[in-house]
Queue: 4 jobs
Job 1
Amino acid sequence: MSIATTTTSYGGGDYRWLASARGTEHPITGTLDYSAFTEGTHFPNGYFPSGLSLTYSTTTGMYGPFAGGAPGTANEVQTATIGGSGLTSFTLTYSGQTTSSLDDAATPAEVEAALKALSNIGANDVEVTGTAGSVYRITFTGDLAGTNVAALTSTPTGGTGSVTIATVTGGVRGLDGFLFHDVPVNGSNDLPAAILTDAKVAAAYLPVPDGLVDGRYICDTVASEA
């Protein structure tokens, strides 16, 4: 039986993606959500590599891979459009919770208040603008910002009145940081990590480019850890 010492290397931390030392003096701490990453794409060699672009999940409180594309966060916007004739009232339902009955000419402020009264929408999680009795523009904010939320549904009452729901902008969480150091995979465990939220990047050296280009990224992270 061999008793020779063996060494497993998890990469030395390839920092060529960092175009300067900007931001490296104040990384934040966070947790990598193992289940959100794909083996072979995000950790092909037994470790999460330095420079991996990350997105923060307000649902899990952990980081997963950035989905690529534009680095900014997009809040979901849906519209509720009144149509038909004879409508007297309507309700809106979000993920199984239904508002109180709303008058057919309810103001945007009244629609907003009704949605905020639901147990699954917080006081800062929705904004409603538009025109009373016509088109309501519903923007998901707060804890629902940057989230692909469930589509609203509506139940109209009276005549042939209708309320048509449409998604104008799908919610997408943006780029929230870059993994600072290599992090060895440990089974399927979630892992603590240092994350840079202000970095000047040489995109050619990012382990997963995700469509990012050379430049400085000040990320829209919502993590609270310092």
Job 2
Amino acid sequence: MITIVIGADHHGFVCKEYIKQQLTMLSQPIAWYDVGARNDEHSDYPIFAHQVAHAIVHGKAEFGVLLCGTGEGMAITANRHKGIYAALAWNEEVAQLSRQHDHANVLVLPADYISADQAVVMIRAWLQAVPLSDEHKRRIAMIDQV
């Protein structure tokens, strides 16, 4: 079983709930660890980005998914955490490449600009992608030098 921590602000709440219902298994079952939001009332995205990053850094989940209006704030916040590689994706190919090339362990989705069905397709492609080695690992090491 794979554990994925998921978080969304009020913009991404409905999409987050849909994702958990629709995406329950790939090659192995998925356990969703939901850090919120719990409804679609106004909420602050940094709270959820920090919680998702914290869960991954502390081994409570292998991967994370974040949703907010544009995805930008979530990505910026999550990437403040050492060991987090959060990538903003807006289509299936970008989601897949973020994992293959950049070893992204958090996928960030712009809930105001994609459908819930598109989100499911992107998450599936991202999770099934295999991180590439050699030059891509070298580049990740270069990122970590900062």
Job 3
Amino acid sequence: MAPACRFLQRTLAGYATHANFARRAGGGPGLREQTRSTPWLANSSLREGEDLQVFQHPGQPAAPARRWKKGIALVGGMLPRANQATRTPCSAAHITIGLQCGGSDGYSGISANPALGAAVDLLVRTAGTAILSETPEIYGAEHLLTRRAVRPRWARS
């Protein structure tokens, strides 16, 4: 299987199992073929059912209106149960954010990096975790980050 297809399958499985999604529906031309839904579902320990439905409307690719209507009807049928979901407070200790540069430009050091730093500070103060995965981005600022490590041995490694 092509790496891009494996990546797509892993991404869809992540959405399909994420707690913030009450019900899931996916469809479109070629979705089943591109994801090979039966192996994808089996490899992801997923099964189609009332919480997860994958469909491809039979018909011509030039007839998207029929697919949209089918998808809207499918989601509409899922809404009554999805609307019963309630939010449950939980600790930020369950949150881990991975940070990686998305392509530096002239403004990332002025706006994006400080904003993300402030957000991570809030997360860490409430027991969450942040991981900076692109170490070349910290050259020259190592001392600013290592003194903030939770454990001194992590700062040394």
Job 4
Amino acid sequence: MSVTTRDVRAFKQRGERFVMLTAYDFPTAQILDQAGIPVILVGDSVGNNILGYDTTVPVTMEEMLHHTRAVARGAKNALIVGDMPFLSYQVSVEDGIRNAGRFLKEGGAHAVKLEGPVTELAHALVDRGIPVMGHLGLTPQSVHAMGGYRVQGRTDEDANRLMVEAEALAKAGVFAVVLEGVPSEVARRITEASDVPTIGIGAGPRCDAQVLVITDLLGLGAGSYPKFVKPSADLRGEIPRAVTAFRDDVVAGVFPDEEHSYH
């Protein structure tokens, strides 16, 4: 049976920790779905992890819809959340409603994610039957305004602001809130005070759930990883070994052999 937003809320009510992972294509979505991952985020992180952009800011609606459709074709059980890209909802509530609707109508998503304390839009979307996931703390679409990828909520004033914003989003009807780049103690306070699940990324162990970018989890990144990432594999090292072995077999004339040829 497919996971719904009601199921996600029920995870918190039962005290059941869960996982969300990003996916950007059909085979990855299929693998995550078969592994029982309940929530798949088609993140605008596709920009800097798949499309080669420096940040998530250049990602367009058409790019997001393209990748969301691929994920929707691969995942049959997971709740699919489409990440609304920069300027697809910041200009006006009307723009936000229109573009959020496209994720469900054209992309095959079940819900959308919004960055920041956009409570008016969240309420408007929920009123129209479009489930919303919030996102507070380090919001990558605001990287230039923040002066880089900086942990948020380190002062009492900022921590209290995040508490207020999380409460406002919950009242607006969001079914979950991502907390990114937030001190562990602040995330704990928000989680304990909130009726909706919190999903942490760089927010410590006290959130109701955890999310990672799939390329980070699989060790596909180049260079160093953020402090909160613990790769579970080293595909960045494994893929070159496989490619090199294939090249060597072809150059040596041992592939294809009789077993791998048609007769």
